[in-house]
Amino acid sequence: MQQYSGIPEHNSQVDATSTLLTEIEHLRDQLWLESSLNELQSQLNECLTDFSNNLQYLESKIFKTVVDQLGLALKSSQVGIALAQTDEAAAKLCYVSMAPGSENAQVKYLKLEQVISTLELKSLSTKQRAFPITANQDNAPAGWLIIIPDPIAYGIKETINRKACKEQLLKSAVERCAAALTQVRQLQSLEQDYQDLKNYNQELQRTNQLKNQFLASTSHEIRTPLSSILGFTHLLLAQGFDPSRERHKEYLSIIQSSGKHLLALINDILDLSKIEANQMEVQWETVDIPAISRTVFALIKEKAANKGLKMVLDLDPDVTTIIADSLRLKQMLLNLLFNALKFTKSGSVGLQVRKINDYVHFVVWDTGTGIPEEYQGELFQPFSQIANTLVGRDEGTGLGLAVTRKLAELHNGYVEVESKINEGSRFVVVLPMKQSIDIKDAETKNIKNQIIEVEYPNCPIPEIISSSNAACILIVEDDVPNAKMMQIYLGKLGHKVDWVKNSTQLWEILQQHCPSIILLDIYLPDCDGFNLIKQLRGNGQYKDIIIIAQTAMAMKGDRETCIAAGFDDYICKPIDLPLLASLISKYS
Fold first, then answer.
1. Global pTM?
2. 3-state SS assignment for residue 456
3. CA 526 to the chain's CA centroid
4. pLDDT tens readout for residues 366-415
5. What CATH number did the domain enclosing 267 receive?
6. How far apart are CA 393 and CA 376, in angstroms?
7. Tens digits of residue pLDDT in 476-505
8. Which of 1, 83, 481, 532 is most exposed, with the fewest beta carbons within 10 Å of its own?
9. Same domain for 269 and 348?
């Protein structure tokens, strides 16, 4: 009888059971890996949806999440994240997590604030105990994930698959941490770009609103005096309207006053726009403070006398000079003094100059109506004029204080104001005595500019000259009213005056006779005045003619440009007729 052994059958069952257990172990490890990674990703996703805090907080939250989740998954390990230091030679442990239930263990290899050298981290990385976290474009580690197994677990044998799953968990955790950091930074960058764009749009809206307000205010300020000019001119020209000589003179005085108001407005707008565009050049020089203070007082004394106001000048004897732009300093003081006169009905107006540390304080005070506290914040806004019964709306441009503050800031100084109702006001311009410039070079460079900016005194209307002193004058001007005005005025003074509208007519009249003086406009319809002066100076027949630029070029430096181009002198529009007569007399 054939017999069969049962031993092989028994071994077969054992092998099948062992294989099944191994597969189960593999499945359990895989499930553990997937479950741990899913939970980690879920927690990281929550971090990515939290934008209520800044980037530093979100990165900290991501690091802490990674450490905590790995601490839960690796129950027999200590996990930490060390952040790279500035010198990149070491990293500091900023996040540490223990396995649950082991927080009170006596042996702790990873401790908060512990510093680990880069060499030691690289050594740990070769043993799969440290993993660099790279979230920067230069691939430099932002931090290191460190894993220290529990020493009690050293003797426990791990299956190869379990060990591989742990390594896969750590590597995946590092990758997902780096991805989360990168995503947070990108989202934060987009958020910042969006915020910047939002701020930019708001700034554009604010600028557009200010532009509209500026245009509206400018239109109002221009139209107000222009209305007087056009209205009273119409009355003088109206058929059947024959005012008395006194009324005639009154109307002309109003027209002249309104014209001067328009000119002041234009000058203030130009100054303000140049300052805002950073095109205002400060001409540094050593300014004599007592001299410039007495000069501005001389310019306002007549207006003060007409109102019966007392003028007080108080100069500190220890303050003699300051490094500043004399023209702009004079402009600041005049703006403040004219304002003080405007708002003072009786009493006195004064200028006090004193030194405090390294600064000069120019104090303009008055005993006028004062300014309500609620309006003082508006004083330095363009076109802002405080309602006052003493002052008409058409008096002043509303730009003087805005320009004054801007000019003070260009001098590295500032303006302060103190005022009480019915007690007067005090405006203080504070300027440093010295500036960080080479004053010798500045004075040499600006000699011509100082000549350009000379303020001509008020010229009296000249008397009619004798025929022996009459000049033969040629006006080259395409604007008919301006040309007629100069021709009539100079003709009344006894000069022989011809007028042409363009360069073509100029060359034609030069073929007939040669004038002694040419008043040449810069902007002509058929030729640029600078090219024309070049042609005239290049022709030996005309090179000695006196040629004066009469032009609307009125910016700082325009006179210098004209003189350098070959003009003998310069007068800007609107033409000051007495000044024009003075220039003609000078060269005839």
1. 0.47
2. coil
3. 40
4. 998 888 887 777 777 765 556 554 444 445 556 778 888 989 998 999 99
5. 1.10.287
6. 18
7. 998 888 888 888 889 888 899 999 999 999
8. 1
9. no
